[in-house]
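Appendix B, Record 12. Input sequence as logged:
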Amino acid sequence: MAVELTLRGPSTRPSAPRATLVEQTAALARRAIVRTLRQRALLVFPMVFPLILFAINGSALSPATRIPRFPTDNYRDFLIAMTFVQGAMFVSISAGVDLARDIESGFLNRLALTPLRGEALLVGQLGGALVIGIIQAIVYLLVGLAAGVTLSSGVGGALVLLVLSILISFAFASLGALLALRFGTGEAVQGIFPLLFVTLFLSSSSLPRNLIKADWFRDIATYNPVSYLIEGLRSLVITGWDAEALALGLGFSIAILAVALGLSQRSMRTRLARR
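Logged structural output:
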């Protein structure tokens, strides 16, 4: 009689399936979104403050449209792009402070003990900031249209404006995450905020670069990446479909996002102690 032997390994229990990168990212993003929605101040203040400046400057600086070669006779058309970028800068601080809070509480270190991948850990944490960026972009567009802003690029341009604005918000949120991972405290992240505003005001936010008379100001605005983010959005409102302005705006957005995410991932590896 033949005897059949079956060799078994140390364990016959099937291993639990490991979550994919998308599933891991979605789980962390869900947590970040719920936390953001529960903190209404993070939604209201970053949204309202740029609109207040839009209302004030839209009226106070309207005589600038009488400057020869000014690109539009409605200063609100020119100013609305600054509102989107200013809101994105607020998103960067919100994202950085939230991540710094998780660092200080030890939540990120606890996540580091799980099989979560670093990419999911970083991008998922920015889910709340992405939601803020989407809500802000829609609100700013609707308020701008209600205030008399006219989009020369039409309905298609409005969709591209929303997409580019959300991309800019996500790029700045990644920059906020980088600051949080480098400094580790919310106070340090908030301390960087005035520097971000300096880059906004030293750009072409208030005047076209070709109409800036001071050479030093024009040179700074030319080398300032924020100028091209603003001009990319502004082109959809005033010019229509300006391929060069859109390419520069999209290119600088992607460049900021890629550099910030890359440096953030490296900073996360050095900060987290995986065991």
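The mean pLDDT is 81.
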